[in-house]
Amino acid sequence: MTDTAQRVSRAAALLAEQDIDAALETISEAARRDPNSPQAAFGHAQIAFEAWQPAAALFERAAALLPGQPDLIRNRALALAAESADDQAEALLESVLAQHPGWLDGHRTLCAMRITRGETEDWDRSYAAAAAREPVNTAVRLSWFQQHATRKDWTAARAVLAGAEQACAPSQGLALSALFLIAESGEGIPDFGPFAALADPGTDLCHVRYLLRTSQPEAALAVAQRHLGGAQARMFWPYAGLCWRLLGDPQAGWLDGDRLHAAAVDLDFTPQELADLAEALRRLHRMKAPYPEQSVRGGTQTDRQLFFHPDPAIRLARDKVLAAVADFAAALPHEPGHPLLERGSSTLRFAGSWSVRLAGAGFHASHTHVRGWISSACYVSLPKPDQLGAPPAGWLSLGSPPPELGLDLGPLRQIEPKPGRLALFGSTLWHATEPFAAGERLTFAFDIAPPR
């Protein structure tokens, strides 16, 4: 292995260990020593971007050494947007899509940019142009459908699917999309029978949600249990918990805890540390709207791994929460086969970290985190008491199911927000934020990765 390859490999290992500073230093040195190495150039650009450093020029350099790499083009566009060059980012993606209209990742990235910039109409125009150029490209039309389905815009999703069914040959993808539309929109009775043998996690999850929505918890549980021992178990544990609660099964208490596996910890931030942290986080909220797949309503969420940011206030917050999580995890009982209580011996790692800034009437829709083991919310700045509204306005609700399922189940616990308070809970536990009247609610959150 060459010296450059060794440095690139070492940088990747440091990044996996979440030592972002050492990873950036190592890959920067590799790119400096071997400026014509495509691998070092790409790695330098990528790690610099993840470290919240200017990276658009680095990606441009890497693109010259690795022409035509889709991931590199997409990430260069993301870096341009992060550096407030939104028009350049969109132009880059549009130019590539004009030559390669079937590039699905390019369409998804471009749509997300337009939505988070605040566009509310015609944000999906790249898909429309691609479908006009390649009318029988089923993959493009299904990806377009998924964009609207994620936003629960059933009228638009239905129109896209109708166009696909008219232009394209019948396929399993089209049939499953039609099934999903009927089940999730509530406008008909879906027939899951022909797809039962697939044992497809996405289809089965849709089936579980439909059965819960139509008051069939026993049948929903039977479908969910097929996956509780498999690779996609974290998608299904939250729904199994709802089924057990509806059926009065004591396994509901086993899953979520009796008492609930959750904690509220008041961290030892000083008022000045919280003020510094709030200022640092506000600078990162450059978008005007949330990503459509996120739970945020009436606010924005940062991109990239928050705790990779070099700001001292953010690094201090990271250190404080890691200590609190270690205490929380150590106090949990150990139980094999449980999604939270089965512990490994690996070091705590973040599966993600981010900040959310909600404005008046903002909230989080009820959701879970399939990539996490322990999830969180930490309050940095809150509206004044007369702005929040009557309790539980702005509080964290644990255990509340998604309202679109129409279940008669309330929260298992509600946590009052206070500056510096950290809420910790299992990632398979449903959680939401109650709407509030006015003001700013600034938080950060993270997922701890499942232990190895």
UniProtKB/TrEMBL annotation:
<dbReference type="Pfam" id="PF13759">
    <property type="entry name" value="2OG-FeII_Oxy_5"/>
</dbReference>
<dbReference type="InterPro" id="IPR012668">
    <property type="entry name" value="CHP02466"/>
</dbReference>
<dbReference type="InterPro" id="IPR011990">
    <property type="entry name" value="TPR-like_helical_dom_sf"/>
</dbReference>
<protein>
    <recommendedName>
        <fullName>Tetratricopeptide repeat protein</fullName>
    </recommendedName>
</protein>
